[in-house]
Design a protein that fits this description.
Elements: E1 5-6, H1 15-21, H2 27-38, H3 52-61, E2 62-63, E3 68-74, E4 80-85, E5 91-99, E6 102-106, E7 110-112, H4 121-125, E8 127-130, H5 133-147, E9 154-157, H6 167-179, E10 188-192, H7 196-205, E11 210-214, H8 220-226, H9 229-232, H10 235-244, E12 253-259, H11 267-276, E13 282-288, H12 302-314, E14 319-321
Parallel strand pairs: 1-2, 6-9, 9-10, 10-11, 11-12, 12-13, 13-14
Antiparallel strand pairs: 3-4, 4-5, 5-6, 7-8
Helix pairs in contact: 5-6, 11-12
This protein binds S-adenosyl-L-homocysteine (SAH) and iron/sulfur cluster.
Length: about 350
């Protein structure tokens, strides 16, 4: 028997070809999309709109893959962390963050990350592999299925991985999340460590998706130290690309600035940062470091954090302090690290 195909792994333009080759009328492709992406069918047998005979014929040719839920942890602040196993037994994490009328899912784009930022646990893993588009979308499908009747309203690509290092798969995933699952581009934010060519391509491949840039330093010397990517794309190059990034009216670029004690948290840093932001439509998220034992880096005092913010606000910038949620379940920014032992190893 020929190998059965995974319907979630079929690129969007190939689904119609699949139904044609299976001898089915074209409208079946639309029905498959509806059942997989809107009704979250986890098996062909669940597609009750199809006759039993059709379901069984289809099951001979194809299947629907699913992320396997390995654990689900709930934080005291309402944040939930989902650990998923993939078909090759690698694991990834997604974090659900309820906030007033929003339900934001923070999704992963890679297993591990090659960027090696000093403060980040995912970076410590190195890059294990890129996720496929269906593995990225499936985080949204799987969590929606688990939280019914609630539905995810916003997506941030701020989980494990550098999304612009895997832009082909990420762009296909974003297309399905918007086109098939109906989440508006305005409600999606992609965060990058600052891969300049990827930012240019993002604007072409996934226009209108919000951009967040992890800046984290006010000088090249500081940034080189904590984010090796800065040696390839230093601040001047990065900020020039931000200035050129096409923004719709009323939209802004978010700059994330992780505050690390004694590294990048002085009032001079804040003043330099304010200067760097000149002429940019932006807002700044000031994130006190979530320390982890492997880096030796420390979180600044609350007073330092407030003083840093005060300088930014005093310069006319929008700057919010973002305490990352889910700290008690290791779901906060930079704490994701799915290195649970592989099955069988
Ligand atoms: N690779 C992308 C997206 C994933 S990281 C990027 O770097 O932007 C998401 C955010 O978590 C980034 O802004 C990063 O600076 C932040 N982060 C990483 N480690 C952190 C830590 N230990 N404490 C606080 N924020 C952290
Ligand atoms: Fe990768 Fe982002 Fe972590 Fe840097 S902060 S290592 S780019 S996930």
């Amino acid at each position: 028997m020929a190998k059965r195909i995974n319907l979630k792994a079929v690129p969007r333009d190939a689904l119609l070809r699949f139904t044609e080759e299976a001898g089915l009328p074209g409208f079946r492709a639309g029905q498959l999309v509806h059942w997989i992406y809107e009704k979250y069918a986890s098996d062909i047998s669940e597609i009750t709109e199809f006759s039993k005979a059709l379901r069984s014929a289809l099951a001979g040719l194809a299947y629907i893959s699913n992320l396997r839920l390995a654990s689900r942890l709930r934080s005291s602040d309402g944040t939930e962390k989902f650990l998923f196993s993939l078909e090759d037994e690698e694991t990834i994490e997604s974090v659900l963050i309820p906030d007033e009328d929003r339900l934001t899912l923070c999704i992963s784009s890679q297993v591990g990350c090659a960027m090696g930022c000093k403060f980040c646990l995912t970076g410590k893993l190195g890059l294990i592999r890129n996720l496929k588009a269906f593995e990225i979308v499936d985080q949204v499908i799987a969590v929606n299925r688990l939280i019914l009747p609630r539905r995810i309203t916003n997506i941030v690509l701020m989980g494990m991985g550098e999304p612009l290092s895997n832009l082909g798969e990420v762009a296909e995933a974003l297309w399905r999340i918007t086109g098939y699952m109906g989440i508006s581009k305005r409600r999606i934010t992609l965060s990058t460590a600052g891969l300049v060519p990827g930012m240019v391509l993002l604007a072409q491949k996934a226009p209108e998706v919000n951009l967040a840039v992890s800046l984290n330093a006010s000088t090249d010397r500081e940034r080189d130290e904590i984010m090796p990517v800065n040696k390839r794309y230093p601040l001047k190059t990065l900020l020039a690309a931000c200035r050129k990034f096409p923004l719709r009216p009323g939209r802004k670029i978010t700059f994330e600035y992780v505050l690390i004690s004694g590294v990048n948290d002085s009032v001079d840093d804040a003043a330099r940062l304010a200067k760097l932001m000149r002429g940019l439509r932006c807002k700044i998220n000031v994130i006190p470091l979530n320390p982890h034992s492997e880096s030796g880096l420390k979180r600044p005092s609350d007073r330092t954090v407030l003083e840093f913010q005060k300088v930014l606000v005093g310069s006319g910038l929008t700057a919010l302090i973002r305490e990352s949620k889910g700290q008690d379940i290791l779901a906060a920014c930079g704490q994701l690290r799915a290195d649970y032992p592989k099955k069988g190893s």
